[in-house]
Design brief:
Length: 488
């Protein structure tokens, strides 16, 4: 009897299981599903994709020729790859980028590190490797090993990935401590190191290479931990179509060399604003300037500038190289952007005559467009700064100058405000946002130095001729031993 009861029980179980499976099969088509490409389909239907990003030099900012930045170029190309336009939401720090991706979409691109604990977002394939780097204030001696960091005031950015290297180090040095901030950015962190608020900071190597010239009192220390992968983030739960499209796009750029080209453009050149020493300058003066001197003199006659000033601008821009192409795509002796060249009627930026003429007229137009309240050398220096960073950012700096109680018509005051455009506290209040504000300060300073050397050479040459002598070899120069050093 027990056997019959058990068999009867099993029969009922089989019946119930069969009915349950049949029910599932019947109801399955009506259960909600996430289509494989729902997110991608939605983006294509609205005809634009929104990137949650940051206003920083390595990601996105308004540059000399409009929107620029390493990830901006990738984002822009990705939008074209999808056949839609690009919409940017750039008022973020790393932590808020991920929150915006989760809550709003469509994807996040802001030097995001691949971290294992973000299970509520999808990450793309790696874009580039980011190596954590310890930097410290000049004057602190003996910062050569991790053990030297104990007791120092160290800062880093939260959610940027750099704190991972510090946590790994803390396993061996329990007394190691640091501060994390989600409100600062890399530039502001370096300001704190330079000013003494912090002794050291951990950032990424490529970030320091982009910013080192603006912070001469910050020294490169040593690499820390393993490299991290820069990735993009996408929301979960909306299908895999957009993720697959992003991965296909990034893989294509990696395979065809475009990604390496962009990396080299943005992170492979960190010496654009370096001041070239006297001997190097004089070598170029002898070898290169003679072929352009008459063009600079003609442009000076047409625009009212001193030809030596135009030559100094040309040297800062290209080292008098008609074939020069900058990391951001400007080209020619005067490094004109494509929009500027079009505005000035220049159809071949590599033609030295057109480039020098167009650059001189553009500098004249900038000087003429400045407010009449700016006069004398101040007007010239601000025009040169605008040639480098754009009028919009210059006006933003003048506004900050006023807020700080300075005179917006004096270059000496405005040059103090320009670097503040690199700090989120200040650029968030401006019309044109982030700018590498330290760059036009160095740019104008370098041009003034090159101009001083050209002035000295011409003056000394005239004296030599008055004495019935000629410059060595018939060149434009005196022997460089006679030129006083201007490198300091």
């Amino acid at each position: 009897m027990p056997t019959l009861i058990y068999a009867h029980f099993l029969a009922h179980i089989r019946l119930y299981l069969t009915l349950f499976i049949i029910t599932l099969l019947i109801l399955a088509p009506t259960l909600p599903k996430v289509p494989h490409g729902e997110h991608l389909t939605h983006i294509q239907a609205k005809d634009f994709i929104t990137a949650q990003t940051r206003n920083t030099p390595t990601t996105y900012y308004e540059g000399r020729q409009g929107p620029t930045g390493f990830e901006y170029e990738l984002m822009h190309q990705f939008a074209e790859y999808l056949g839609v336009s690009l919409n940017l939401n750039a008022k973020h720090h790393p932590e808020s980028v991920l929150s915006a991706v989760r809550e709003q979409g469509d994807f996040g691109a802001a030097a995001l590190p691949l971290l294992p604990d973000a299970s509520d977002v999808h990450y793309t394939r790696p874009i580039i490797q980011m190596q954590p780097l310890l930097v410290y204030r000049r004057g602190l001696h003996g910062i050569k090993a991790p053990s030297d960091l104990v007791g120092l005031e160290i800062g880093t950015l939260s959610q940027a990935g750099t704190s991972e290297a510090l946590r790994e180090l803390q396993r061996d040095y329990a007394d190691l401590s640091w501060k994390e901030s989600h409100e600062l950015d890399v530039d502001e962190l370096l300001v704190q190191v330079e000013s003494g608020v912090l002794d050291a900071a951990v950032i990424f190597d490529h970030q320091f290479r982009l910013n080192r010239l603006f912070f001469p009192n910050v020294e490169r220390g040593f690499l820390m931990g393993d490299p991290l992968s820069m990735v993009w983030a996408l929301p979960r739960g909306r299908g895999l179509g957009l993720l697959e499209a992003a991965n296909d796009f990034l893989q294509t750029l990696q395979e065809n060399g475009t990604l390496d080209h962009l990396v080299n453009r943005y992170f492979g050149h960190d010496d654009y604003l370096e001041y070239v020493g006297t001997r190097t300058f004089l070598t170029h003066l002898d070898a290169r300037l003679p072929q352009f001197a008459d063009l600079f003199k003609q442009a000076a006659r047409d625009t009212g500038f001193d030809w030596k000033l135009l030559a100094a601008v040309g040297y800062q821009e290209s080292h008098w190289d008609a074939e020069a192409v900058s990391p951001t795509g400007v080209r020619g002796v005067m490094m004109l952007t494509h929009p500027t060249a079009s505005e000035m009627g220049v159809d071949n930026r590599r033609d030295a005559a057109q480039s020098i003429d167009g650059g001189a007229r553009y500098l004249r137009s900038l000087k003429d467009r400045l407010p009449e309240s700016i006069t004398g050398d101040d007007r010239l220096y601000m025009a040169m700064a605008a040639y480098n960073v754009g009028l919009g950012h210059l006006y933003d700096a003048r506004k900050i100058t006023e807020e700080l109680g300075g005179d917006p018509n004096r270059w000496q005051d405005v040059r103090e405000a320009l670097p503040l455009l690199q700090q989120q506290e200040w650029h968030s209040q401006t019309r044109h946002g982030y700018a590498r504000g330290g760059e036009p300060v160095i740019y104008v300073r370098n041009i003034r130095r090159y101009y001083e050397m050209l002035e000295y050479v011409e003056h000394s040459r005239q004296q030599f001729f008055q004495l019935g002598q000629t410059a060595t070899g018939g060149s434009l120069l005196l022997p460089f031993e006679l030129i006083p050093p201007l490198d300091q």
